[in-house]
Amino acid sequence: MNWLTSVWEDREALSRAAAAELADAAAKAIEARGRFDLALAGGSTPRRLYEILASEYYRRIGWARTHLFWSDERYVPESDPLSNSRMARKALLDPLGITPENVHAMPTFFPDPEQAALAYEQTLRTHFGGGIPRFDLILLGMGPEGHTASLFPGSAALEEKMRWVLPVRVAAEPPLRLTLTLPVLNAAREVFFLVSGPDKAAIVRKILSLSPDEVAPYPAARVNPEGRVILFLDRAAQG
Ligand code: 6PG
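Above: inputs. Below: predicted complex with 6-phosphogluconic acid.
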């Protein structure tokens, strides 16, 4: 794994460091291609990063040229407290007033989540012009057993080579999710993992000590795009 590790005192410092790197990624992408295609992480760790982006990077990132997607979503109404897009709306989108045309949330209103996954693939196809979506940056978290996005150990979704978005049933609350697949995660120009807290120290140590042929059981360890991967850690997660 060609991951860079960036260790910070606490979640606040980790979030500030990630915000600065994200702003650089945005500037590079907008300079090179006229837009910044960013996939947001779910869970609780990224909230502070989103709050910092909203409060301190309003003028330091070209938000009008930034398109926001998600790396996964819980299959609940957007009003549900467990919704990843709800958390991002409150922490980032609403405070910034990002134009709705630039916000591409994973749909959770279809009766059948397979329809939702296909609809999101169409959203990606329309935005990225047909070939595999190449995000400028994908933000990801990491679960204590090594899951990332909603790709959990042992899931058949880990072996998916063609689909870009899959509905999955996972051993977490809520169980039904939509997730980007490894082909899309590994097509990213950059990936930032945001990992904080003592409950992640064991999995971080395990993943950083893996030899190449040992990565399979840990979905996060299978994120190895050609581009840069930065693992943002706080001291508690470093162990
Ligand atoms: C989700 C996330 C998931 C998350 C990890 C870490 O929808 O829950 O995509 O992969 O990033 O579970 O979650 P925390 O940041 O809350 O520890």
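The chain has one domain: 4-228.
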